[in-house]
Structure formats: structure tokens, C-alpha cells
Fold:
Amino acid sequence: MKRYPTFDPPEYLNWAPSEDITREYEQTLSRDPVRANLVSALDRDQLLAMYAGLLRFRLHDITLHRWVKQGILSKAWLGSGEEAVTIGSVHALDRKIDKVGPMIRNAGACHEMGIPVAGMFREYLATADSPSRGKDVHIGSMLHGVIAPVSPVGALTSVFAGVALAFKQRGERAVALTWIGDGATKTTAFHEGMNLAAVLHVPAIYVLQNNHVALGTRFDQHQAGPFTAWSKAYGVSGFSCDGNNVLDTYGATKLAADLARSGHGPAIVFAETFRMGGHATHDEKEARELFPPEVFERWGKRDPIGMFESYLEGHGVGRSTLEETEQQVIEEIAQAEKEALISRDTNMPLPETVTQGVYSEPDAATPEKY
Structure:
């Protein structure tokens, strides 16, 4: 993909595939025969759809990063380097019936579930035609199966135990999936929600995203034991994956979804990845001081988009096809940005709409309960 010197991590600017890391990428996909079969069953269109999703997510983040530099936004929380965890997981779901709860660093889940990128940009700008009608910067749309997050990390663990319980009680085949960062696994909400989901055997999937840093606290400073210990602690199935390998993440989540859908949930997907920037755009310099340069160099060589491009080319997808796909996404993002900025200038919410859509309207045929 094209690189953007002002916005990309420096390790990505002159990125080229490494023979050793390319071999590692392939070996990861072949180590589990069941997961390998799931990946080999993907057709060309599905692979390109994942590639487009990765690009869409990266360019979505670059747009937000540019908006911060331009003063349009005060700050942005980005998922640079972690895109495969989100995109691989969403593409493993049945997006017609399943529900997801992305945290801010999983914004790519929103557009892969069908929310237009222009709508996402409008949300950040709080316009009247944004998904929340200007009331929230957290993106959600029940029409598209996306439950908006809340700021307290880990809070959706309990929410999704409840969503999955509803699926179970109704006899529906749907599963509920949310993402939880390594730091958020230390919250009360995570433990209460995880325990509830495990005890009730609900069809929930929890993607525990180890990006090796919680705000400004390295993983080794907030957890002594192995990250994968959580599944044993709660008595649920766990599937580990390379979070920078979109296909390995897809395979692990597909196994978890099949298990949960068959009545044997919940399940945890452990995704190892790395945050290539700050907690948000305001602390990028400080974030670089948390780890030695060689750590960023190591993960920079494992750029999830560059590695997937290399994989696709090695499996018969031509460079021209990849470039055509990228150009389509570039044009999509550019048009979405244009539409959102027009809304900011022409369609901001009126003060009197602040109380509209806050509470559900009671059915006229149903007695009021409150």
C-alpha cells in the first residue's frame, strides 16, 4: 500500500517483506490443520474484501490523524498496527445476524459491519446526520449490528454477556463479539462479565487484544502470568492467534464462533499484537519512550497490511489487482471525508433536539411501565 510519511509510523515508510517473516506468516497458517482448512476455503473475493477492510481501517485512521493536525479534532484514538485483530474477527462472523461491540481502537469493525465511513466521520464531528444525531462520538448502529462502546474500558464485557444471553433464551443462532484490551482485563467489569458469560454458557466471543501496553503501562508492569491464562481461569475455550496476521485471526475467531453458535460458548480469542502509536494522538512521543527502538522495529516489520499484501501476491493475486482495490478504497475515504465536512458546515444539530431519541418511545398499545 501507499505510505504516508506524516502519519505512518516511521517503521512503515520503507516497508518491504522479510523472507524470514514471510515464512513465519505462512507457517502460522499451517500449524493447525483445522484452522488451515478454514483459511484455504476463503475465495479470492473474500480475501480481497479483507484486504480492502484493512486499507479502509488504516486510511480511516490516517484521516482522523490529519484532522487532529488540522485542528478539526482535538485528539484521536488510532488502531495503527492492530488492524488485523479487528478485520479478521469481523470477517469470521455472520454479519447478517451477529452483533459486535467495538472499542475505539476497533473502529474498523463499524465499516466492516456496514456502517458507511461517511457516517463514522460525521459521528466524530457530531453532526445532525451522524448515527447518534450529534449526541456521541462513539459509533453504533443496531441496524448494522454494532453496539456503541462506552468510555470505561472493559464495560462491554458484561453488556455482551447479556446480549448473548438474550440470543440463547430466544434460541437464535447469533453470537455476540466484543474486544477487550490487555489493560482492560484488570477491571472489575471484565471479571464480572466474563464470569457471568462462562457460568451461563452464552454464545459470546471475547477477543482479548494484547497490544502490550495499557495507556502508559507496559504489559509486564500490569500482569505477571501468561495472557492466555484467562480461559483456564474461567473454564472456557481459548484460541490464540497472531494478531498481525489477518488470516490467523480470522481462523481463530471462526473456530470460536462455531463453538459458541453450537451452544458451547463463551470463547476467548487471544490476539497478540502491538500498538504502533500512542494511547491517542496527544501522547505519541511519550509512547515511543515506553519501549526500546528494537521493539518498534520488530513489530514494524510485521505490518499487518504489508504482510497480507505479500501473502496475496505469493498466492496469485496480481499487483495490479491490489492497486486497483487500494485506489477504490482511497476514493471511498476521500468521498466520505468530503461528505462529512459538508455536514459539519451545513447540518449541525439544533439545541432543541438534545432530548430527542434519548429514551425509547413506548408502544401505544402497551401500558407505560414508568
Observations:
- The longest strand covers residues 204-210.
